[in-house]
């Protein structure tokens, strides 16, 4: 028809005002034959404007009218639409929110009649009502049509606000239950002989079992089967399996009417590798012996829904004791949290920020937190045993297991996120949990959630706000009530009982929950600023402590640090305001004894854990030495000077150990360092530089006190062994040689006396008992060993090495490097020994045999009695000694011709040997991996136990802490030991070939 002048403009404006984004297209649709009589009816336009997407609703309405069988049917629909507000709101609401249901109505134009009824029983249908709605289905196709018709009624009540999100989810679960029963009925009708042989129970799991299903979701199930009337069990199980498989196909397969949803049975014992149907006894045996923690977590939602319900109830009753005893399993909390982290890690990077379900701050965070608390406390409190997330959260709050304010915020956030998820899936009835990026989609979603003012911006803001609440609360949910248990609460607020607090702490891995509660009370009680800030920090800190091998030690040391620094303004400000500081502190305090011991001797070093001031990056040698020498100059005497030098060393050892721990554990913002060799090099270089700077400062302090600015003899310290190789560990002694050269005109005896006094005083001052760790200076690698003089002149070294040097001494000199004192003297010493350690003619066969004999004797004589050789990181097969002697043999043989081999560092020499073709790429990689791992083990033992060791600890908690440092989760210490043995075994094979094989 032709519009009157000005009419188009008026209609166009009205359509814009009612929310249409394409008024021109809407005008054309309103002008279509079916809507001519009602196009100007304000009731229709107002109803369309109230929908999530008026354009989509109008298109769907036109399609529905066109699909009607004739003029009479169209007129009936229009008359009812205009006259009956309930139908109008329901039908247009669905058409404006779901393109998929509009498609269904276009294919089945009579199904709009399902929305006409408006009776109390229609408002809240249950399983029985849905079963009646599906009763006429005789095959998979008609079942799909009936299912969509029932789904249409749920969606209509949902989008109109007649039911809220929890009721929507419950109705979807009830519809799924009715559908499973109908599908099983079809399967039984197709194979009555199978049904006669067996009892088959269908157990709903996941969201269906929890009565909180989405519009489009896999329906997780487990099948339980038993023989009937003495039938053969194997035949009965085969029959039950055929019925179960048919049920799954009926629901899952795509037909001309699409599919309903996939039925997923992968939560069954052994997953997809296990039998589809098991007997109850078989299920029970599996869960008693083999099940992992996550499988008990999944059983929280188990609910019999179809088939033999009595058998289903027997199944649930039999497994309940196992479910509620799961919290007593070793590493229970860690296992659950690890599963959650694995889910997040598997999200494609491009989707993380849009993931509504699995991403940080998503639905799964709420569900995991609630389930964790249920499993910890549900054994003693039956009120917590609900499979529905919101019901369980309410029960947790009522019982004092969760703070009421926290529970209310989480409830609100969860409802919003679930509502958003429902609306996203409802649009095309597709299984997705991604928030769309298209603005039109976001506009529709915002309007569907009644966010009508700037719907795109408002929706995005509300989504981010609720996700932020979940991120902030989902772990706090677990830890905050522990503080409330020891603090004063508002009137009427429930608190954890002492027994509940104890249960939760044990689940978190605390060995002494009573002591932990005392520490929490001391930290969180009171009205001071310190207590207030610590109450804010502790829920997060407790989580980080729990993510370690020794939560008790972490909490205890945090209390000690806070007692020492709590009145210092910068300390509380550091933890509160600098993002990395609190997490770094928690990791460091709970990783072992060494770092906390270093920190407690000077707690102000906690400032290093912050974001600024260089943080945890180890400092190079030059500024370290400059700082130590400046402190020595300011000191009144040698004792004060060396004390200052040792203080710097202690602080820097803490910095290095903290960097090593944080790099090994990783943080929430920074993953663990993947390159284990980089961490080894960091520690070896930092500790070696620090030792050299400390020796330089000590030398200066001793000389200054005894002789002023100039010693009567030039004096140099030569690093040996790991010290010379820049490979010192936390517990390593400093192997050195001392060399001197009398100054012009100075009597040799006077020079020797001065040099010996310097050495004696340096060694004494560095070992004087104090708050700082001692530095043991070991000169046993000197000529003649312990029988020889501590200090020699350069000429004496030259005469000795020319006449008396043994193969082992040349071997030891491969690691010699000047580290302190007179640089020119150190350089000349190095030039003196180069021909010895890199002989021009290489090694003759007798020298090679001697080195092999020495190595074999060391393996047999020096290995501690009772030690497991395969787990000895230094002397065991494939350990440090094996790798280093193999590399050093290559250096002795080829160093004169291959300049790259002339290095004191093992890994550099190994890389040079590979580059020179002296060792294959594969063998070099095998040796490097073994050397790095063995070094990491020694560093880990020192960090964990606070004293040096070459073997894995035998105490389970210490062994677990070593495992955490090496990247193994709780409960995987055995995997760590197996991996070490494999790595060492491969390395030993290379050593046998290269070192002992004569190649």
Report the structural category: mainly alpha
Give the C-alpha Rg.
38 Å
Characterize the largest beta sheet: strand count, sense, and whether it forms a barrel.
5 strands, mixed
Low-confidence stretches: 1-7
* Averaged pLDDT: 91
The number of distinct β-strands equals 10
Question: What is the tally of helical segments?
Answer: 45
- Cα(first) to Cα(last) distance is 99 Å
Helix percent band = 55-70%
* Strand proportion: 5-15%
Shape: elongated
Any overview of this molecule?
The protein is mostly helical and 999 residues long. Strands 1, 2, 3, 4 and 5 form a 5-stranded mixed sheet that branches. Strand 7 (734-742), helix 36 (748-767) and strand 8 (777-778) form a beta-alpha-beta unit. The protein starts with 6 loop residues before the first helix and ends in a 5-residue tail after the last helix.
What secondary-structure arrangement, pairings included, does this model have?
Layout: H1 7-17, H2 23-30, H3 42-49, H4 54-67, H5 71-83, H6 85-97, H7 99-107, H8 120-123, H9 127-134, H10 140-159, H11 165-190, H12 192-197, E1 198-204, H13 206-209, E2 219-227, H14 233-252, E3 263-264, E4 277-278, H15 280-289, H16 293-299, E5 303-307, H17 309-324, H18 332-345, H19 363-377, H20 389-398, H21 404-428, H22 439-448, H23 455-473, H24 476-484, H25 498-507, H26 513-524, H27 529-546, H28 551-565, H29 569-577, H30 579-590, H31 594-600, H32 621-634, H33 638-665, H34 676-707, E6 713-719, H35 721-724, E7 734-742, H36 748-767, E8 777-778, E9 791-793, H37 794-803, H38 807-812, E10 817-821, H39 823-837, H40 845-861, H41 880-894, H42 906-915, H43 921-945, H44 956-965, H45 973-994
Parallel strand pairs: 2-3, 2-4, 7-8, 7-9
Antiparallel strand pairs: 1-2, 1-5, 6-7, 6-10
């Amino acid at each position: 028809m032709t519009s009157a002048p000005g009419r188009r403009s008026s209609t166009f404006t009205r359509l814009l005002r009612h929310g249409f984004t394409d008024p021109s297209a809407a005008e054309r649709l309103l002008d279509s034959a079916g809507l001519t009589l009602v196009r100007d009816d304000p009731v229709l336009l107002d109803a369309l404007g109230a929908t999530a997407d008026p354009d989509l609703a109008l298109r769907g309405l036109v399609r529905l009218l066109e699909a009607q069988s004739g003029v009479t049917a169209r007129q009936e629909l229009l008359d009812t639409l205009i006259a009956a507000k309930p139908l109008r709101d329901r039908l247009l609401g669905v058409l404006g929110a779901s393109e998929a249901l509009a498609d269904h109505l276009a294919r089945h134009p009579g199904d709009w009649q399902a929305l006409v009824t408006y009776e109390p029983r229609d408002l809240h249908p249950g399983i029985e009502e849905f079963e009646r709605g599906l009763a006429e289905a005789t095959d998979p196709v008609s079942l799909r049509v009936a299912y969509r018709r029932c789904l249409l009624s749920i969606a209509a009540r949902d989008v109109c606000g007649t039911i809220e999100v929890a009721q929507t989810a419950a109705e979807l679960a009830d519809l799924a239950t009715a559908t499973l029963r109908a599908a099983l009925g079809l399967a039984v009708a197709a194979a009555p002989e199978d049904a006669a042989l067996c009892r088959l129970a269908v157990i709903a799991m996941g969201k269906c079992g929890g009565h909180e299903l989405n519009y489009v979701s896999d329906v997780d199930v487990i099948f339980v089967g038993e023989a009937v009337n003495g039938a053969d069990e194997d035949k009965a199980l085969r029959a039950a399996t055929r019925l179960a498989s048919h049920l799954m196909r009926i629901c899952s397969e795509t037909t001309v009417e699409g599919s309903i949803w996939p039925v997923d049975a992968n939560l069954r014992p052994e997953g997809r590798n296990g039998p589809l149907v098991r007997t109850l006894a078989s299920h029970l045996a599996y869960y008693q012996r083999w099940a992992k923690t996550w499988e008990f977590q999944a059983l929280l939602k188990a609910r019999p829904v179809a088939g033999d319900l009595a058998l289903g109830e027997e199944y649930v009753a039999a497994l309940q004791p196992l479910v509620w005893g799961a919290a007593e399993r070793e590493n229970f909390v860690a296992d659950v949290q690890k599963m959650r982290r694995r889910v997040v890690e598997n999200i494609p990077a491009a989707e993380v920020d849009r993931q509504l379900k699995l991403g940080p701050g998503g639905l799964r965070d709420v569900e995991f937190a609630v389930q964790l608390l249920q499993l910890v406390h549900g054994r003693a409190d039956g009120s917590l045993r609900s499979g529905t997330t919101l019901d369980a959260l309410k029960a947790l709050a009522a019982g004092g297991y969760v703070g009421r304010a926290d529970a209310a915020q989480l409830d609100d956030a969860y409802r919003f996120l679930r509502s958003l998820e429902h609306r996203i899936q409802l649009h095309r009835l597709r299984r997705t949990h991604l928030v769309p990026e298209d603005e039109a989609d976001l506009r529709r979603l915002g309007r569907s959630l009644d966010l009508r003012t700037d719907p795109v911006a408002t929706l995005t803001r509300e989504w981010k706000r609720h996700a932020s609440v979940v991120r902030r609360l989902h772990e706090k949910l677990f830890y905050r009530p522990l503080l409330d248990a020891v603090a004063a609460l508002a009137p009427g607020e429930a608190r954890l009982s002492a027994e509940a607090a104890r249960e939760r702490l044990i689940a978190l891995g605390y060995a002494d929950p009573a002591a932990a509660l005392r520490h929490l009370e001391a930290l969180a009680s009171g009205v001071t600023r310190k207590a207030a800030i610590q109450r804010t920090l502790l829920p997060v800190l407790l989580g980080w402590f729990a993510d370690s091998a020794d939560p008790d030690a972490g909490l205890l040391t945090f209390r000690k640090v806070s007692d020492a620094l709590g009145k210092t303004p910068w300390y509380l400000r550091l933890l509160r305001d600098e993002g990395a500081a609190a997490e770094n502190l928690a990791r460091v305090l709970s990783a072992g004894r060494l770092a906390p011991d270093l920190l407690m001797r000077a707690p102000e070093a906690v400032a290093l854990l912050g974001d600024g001031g260089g943080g945890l990056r180890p400092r190079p040698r030059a500024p370290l030495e400059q700082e130590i020498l400046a402190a020595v100059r300011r000191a009144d005497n040698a004792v004060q000077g060396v004390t200052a030098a040792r203080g710097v060393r202690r602080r820097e050892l803490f910095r290095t150990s903290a960097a090593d721990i944080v790099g090994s554990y990783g943080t929430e913002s920074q993953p663990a360092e993947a390159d284990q060799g980089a961490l080894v090099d960091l520690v070896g270089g930092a500790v070696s530089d620090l030792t050299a700077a400390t020796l330089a400062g000590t030398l200066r302090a001793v000389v200054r006190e005894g002789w002023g600015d100039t010693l009567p003899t030039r004096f140099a310290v030569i690093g040996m062994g790991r010290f010379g190789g820049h490979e010192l560990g936390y517990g390593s002694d400093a192997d050195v040689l001392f060399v001197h050269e009398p100054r012009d005109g100075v009597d040799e005896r006077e020079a020797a006396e001065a040099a010996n006094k310097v050495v004696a005083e340096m060694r004494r001052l560095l070992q004087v008992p104090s708050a700082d760790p001692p530095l043991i200076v070991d000169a046993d690698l000197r000529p003649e060993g312990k029988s020889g003089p501590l200090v020699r002149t350069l000429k004496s070294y030259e005469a000795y090495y020319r006449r008396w040097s043994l193969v082992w001494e040349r071997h030891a000199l491969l690691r010699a490097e000047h580290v302190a004192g007179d640089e020119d003297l150190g350089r000349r010493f190095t030039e003196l020994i180069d021909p010895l350690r890199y002989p021009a003619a290489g090694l003759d066969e007798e020298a090679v045999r001697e080195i092999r004999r020495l190595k074999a004797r060391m393996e047999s004589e020096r290995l501690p009695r009772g030690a497991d050789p395969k787990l000895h990181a230094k002397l065991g097969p494939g350990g440090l000694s094996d790798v280093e002697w193999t590399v050093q043999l290559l250096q002795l043989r080829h160093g004169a011709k291959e300049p790259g081999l002339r290095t004191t560092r093992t890994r550099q020499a190994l890389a040079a040997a590979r580059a020179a073709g002296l060792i294959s790429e594969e063998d070099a990689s095998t040796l490097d991996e073994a050397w790095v791992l063995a070094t990491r083990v020694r560093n880990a033992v020192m960090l964990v136990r606070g004293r040096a060791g070459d073997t894995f600890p035998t105490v389970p908690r210490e062994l677990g802490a070593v495992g955490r440092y090496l990247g193994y989760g709780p409960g995987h210490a055995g995997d760590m030991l197996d991996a070490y043995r494999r790595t060492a075994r491969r390395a030993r094979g290379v050593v046998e070939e290269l070192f002992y094989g004569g190649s």
